[in-house]
Write a structure and sequence with these properties.
By secondary structure, the protein is an alpha+beta fold. Helix content is about 30%, strand content about 45%. It is built from 4 helices and 6 strands.
């Protein structure tokens, strides 16, 4: 059995890979039980149920995801990412530029903050968006 990594950047990338695949159970396994997720334009939730409650409804109509990491930097347990999140829905691909900050402790993400434009995110599910 392969041992799971605890290196902060690898933990964050594995977490995002699981979310891209919409495997919520696998993704949540990379979060500490009391993890804090701040979706900056919308608010903060805590714990696995809080994160699941925010993200499952958003991802429900999505058929496929790509989380492209454009830039990364790390300073000890803190990982910074510039991403382009791509989501395929019935009406095609939509893109959302995102900047994230993660803090990893003991191999688990304890803090996760996403920064993005709320209007752009709202258009992801809007079938009339160009």
């Amino acid at each position: 059995m392969k041992e799971r990594t605890t290196h902060p950047t690898a933990v964050v990338e594995a977490f995002l890979d699981a979310f891209a695949a919409m495997d919520f159970d696998r993704a949540l396994a990379y979060l500490a039980e009391d993890a804090e997720y701040t979706n900056v334009p919308m608010g903060t939730v805590r714990g696995h149920q809080g994160v699941r409650g925010v993200l499952e409804p958003f991802f429900a109509p999505i058929h496929e995801n790509e989380f492209r990491i454009l830039r990364r930097a790390a300073d000890g347990p803190v990982v910074f990412l510039e991403r382009l999140d791509r989501h395929r829905l019935d009406h095609g691909w939509r893109e959302l530029p995102v900047n994230s900050v993660f803090e990893v402790r003991d191999g688990l993400i304890s803090i996760w903050r996403d920064y993005f434009d709320l209007a752009t995110a709202a258009r992801i599910h809007d079938a009339s968006a160009a």
